[in-house]
Structure formats: C-alpha cells, structure tokens
Amino acid sequence: MFECISMKSYILFLSVCFFFASFHSEAAVPVHSDSSADSSATEGPMLAKSWFGGSRRSYSPKGKFYLQLGFTWAAYGKSDLKFTGPGYNFTLQDVSAADEPYVGSLQYNIHAGYYFKDNYSITLGYDHMKYVLNIPQKAKITGNIESEVSNPGIATGQFAGNYNGEVITITPEMLTLEYTDGFNYVSTHVQRFDDLWVSSKGNTSLSLETGLGGGLIIPRADVRFFRVGDNNKLNIAGWAASAKAGLMFNFSKRFYFLTNLEAGYSDLNKVYTTGRNDIDQASHQINFLQNSYLIGLRF
C-alpha cells in the first residue's frame, strides 16, 4: 500500500500541521521561581498553554539538552533504479524493496538536541535503517546492456540487449542490492511540542511532536552486479528531507517516551556497486516511512 501514498502530499500535510501549531497556542505564561504571589518573584521561562487548557507543566525544558535512543521500522516506495558505466546505461522501473530490522544489528535511532524555547528544539540525529531490494521480482527495463560491461569486463549473458520497456525478471544472476549495513540518515530537525494533557501536579504530560528537517544519506551498499560486486565502504550517496509527527509522554521533567512517524524523500545519486567506484555507479530516488520508538533524557 505504501507505494500508493503521495509522499509529497504527506510531507505537505505535516508541514501545514507544524505551522498551524505555531499559531494555535495562546499567550505563554512564565514559570515563577517560587509559589508565592509576591510581585517581586523572579520570572522564569515562558510555558506554552496546553491545547485543551487545564493544568500547565511545572517546569520548562528551555535551555536543556537531551539524548534519546530507540529502534525503528521502515517502509519504502517503489523507485527507478538506474545503472551507468562502461558498456551499459539502463533503468529498472518501479522496483520494490523492504527493510530487515532483525538481520544483523537492529535498526536504531540516536538523537541529541537542545531546547531553544520552551516548546521548540533542534535535533541532530542518526537513523540506521535498512533497505533490501526484493529479489527475484519483475520490472520494466529501458536502456542498453552490452555482452560485456565494466572494466575489467563482466559477462552479462542472457541480459545483454537494447530495451524499451520490456518486462524482465531480476534474479541474483543480474543483481542484488542492499543497504543492510545502513540506509543511514544523518539529519537535523527543528521540532515543536504542544501539550495535549498535563497532570494536576504539572510533572507528567502528553505532548504532540511535529518536526521538519533534512540531511545526508550515507549508506553502505552491498551490491552484486552480474555476480560481481562488493560490500562497499560508506559514502555520502545523496540527501533527504523529511517531516514527522508523534506523541511524547513525559514521566517527569527529565525522562520521557516518544513515538513518531516520519515521511521522507531521498535522492541517492552516487551509489557504489562493483567496487570500481570511478566507473560503475547507480542512482535512485526513494520515498520512505520510518516509525520510531525512543526513550529520552533531558539534562
């Protein structure tokens, strides 16, 4: 079903939610340094009001740093996978892939950030997702493949030819491609938090998280191209932009649990294949969804 989702529409929807939230809250109120009504009491950071009124938090995270760790699942839209090099220039259209969260290391998230306002933060994140091309699968192909490609030459056998939209079956004899050592998204996000519910004592709360960001895709591409290839080194293969929304449950002013759904677009224009990185490369654009579960600490 994921390939039927309009990723640009989803990101636009989350962007509208993010900016709508910016204008939704009423005027913030200060946190006082003590509970007395003395007009000389020192005022602290401004607290944004809960969407549904009622109690307010008894603390503000403004000026605090945070660290959050967790795990993630991912889903990917179909993409056009293009290969270029000596003796070949062809595209496999609408190929599908999946994540493999339990192969090797888990898919995980490591994020660190800073609250520059009571309900705004900036985050530097590392999301370790995995991407595995489904093999075998049928796909349309355009372009040309000579009987021998790359340098030194690699025999292409039955796959040699000129193509104009024919359907072929992609088998391991032609191609395997995976980023199981990381479809790694290194990003920066700006996030907003709006309290949905606050306990009567103000220490526990439930908040809506929305955010926008972007960064680099740094995969380790494990590719076999007509049976020749390598588990290539990490490289900056392209960029990505994403939007997310989720829920944060604050156990206290320090500890919290966060779950969110993030939709993104990535453009990988320098994917290593055979290990002959100066001459053989691939490229594709991937829409992705990431569902993360994290625990966090403010300090």
How would you summarize the topology of this molecule?
Layout: H1 7-24, E1 29-32, E2 43-47, E3 65-76, E4 79-85, E5 88-95, E6 97-98, E7 108-117, E8 120-129, E9 132-133, E10 137-145, E11 148-149, E12 154-155, E13 161-170, E14 175-178, E15 183-198, E16 205-217, E17 222-225, E18 228-231, E19 238-250, E20 255-272, E21 281-298
Antiparallel strand pairs: 1-2, 3-7, 3-21, 4-5, 4-21, 5-10, 6-9, 7-8, 8-15, 10-13, 11-12, 14-17, 15-16, 16-19, 17-18, 19-20, 20-21
Structural notes for this entry:
This protein is mainly beta and 299 residues long. The chain has one helix and 21 strands. It has an eight-stranded antiparallel barrel with strand order 3-7-8-15-16-19-20-21. Strands 14-17-18 form a three-stranded antiparallel β-sheet, with no helix packed on it. The longest helix is centred in the first third of the chain and has 18 residues. About 8% of the residues have low confidence.
Describe the structure concisely for a colleague:
With 299 residues, the protein is mainly β. The chain has one helix at residues 7-24; strands at residues 29-32, 43-47, 65-76, 79-85, 88-95, 97-98, 108-117, 120-129, 132-133, 137-145, 148-149, 154-155, 161-170, 175-178, 183-198, 205-217, 222-225, 228-231, 238-250, 255-272, 281-298. 6% of the residues lie in helices and 58% in strands.
**Terminal residue distance:** 41 Å
For the residues shown, what is the average pLDDT? 87
Large-scale geometry: elongated
Order of helices and strands: HEEEEEEEEEEEEEEEEEEEEE
Largest sheet: 8 strands, antiparallel, barrel
Which strands sit side by side, in order, in the main sheet? 3-7-8-15-16-19-20-21
Structural class by SSE content: mainly beta
How many helices? The count is 1
- Oligomeric state: single chain
Q: What's the alpha carbon Rg, rounded to whole Å?
A: 24 Å
Low-confidence stretches: 19-29, 32-43
Fraction of helical residues: under 10%
Overall strand count: 21
Strand percent estimate: over 45%
